[in-house]
Amino acid sequence: MDNKRELIFKATEKIIATKGLQGLSMQQIAQEAGVAAGTIYRYFTDKEELISELRKDVLRVVASHILENCEEGTLEQRFKRVWFNIVDFGRQRTHANLSYEQYIHLPGIDTGPHQAFERSTFEGLHHIFTEGRDAGVFHNLQDKTLFATSLEPAIALGRSIRRGQMQYDKTELEFVCNLCWQSILTPSNTTQKEQSGR
Q1: pTM for this entry
Q2: Which residue pairs, CB below 8 angstroms and at least 24 apart, start in 120-123?
Q3: Per-residue pLDDT at 192
Q4: Residue 39: other Cβ atoms inside 10 A
């Protein structure tokens, strides 16, 4: 990616993360990025396009971290790797990064084109859910429901660790990760896991 474009993205994200979207100006962004205000318009026609592209950039960064090595191993190994990737990514975020809550409140987040981009960016995660459903391992639920049930706890835990509200305890997190995994398994698969664990 072009270095100045990246600087503009980082500056915009930092300003929104620390000061909010209200009052965000191209002049503030230029000052934070260390570029001339006119430079921004070489990359983006206006603030709306900049925010639209920022949404995509944030998604790409998140996806590259949480989907790392998500195609290797068994279905369970892949799910648990994604779960821990989410925790690790969440706990390493800084004040200059958009939080999950800030991201979901960016304008345009619910538009059809953005939803399609989000789905394609996280295709690896959708493959895990589809494979699990097709094999009868996961409950026959929508991807959003499976995500909310099994992976959103990882977002909350990563945030709590980052804020110093809890310690990073690998043993405890492995226990919780296993609970999240079991929460989306069909009853027959849960029973098989319990029997094999005896």
Answers
A1: 0.84
A2: 121/56, 121/59, 121/60, 121/63, 122/59, 122/63, 122/67
A3: 55
A4: 16
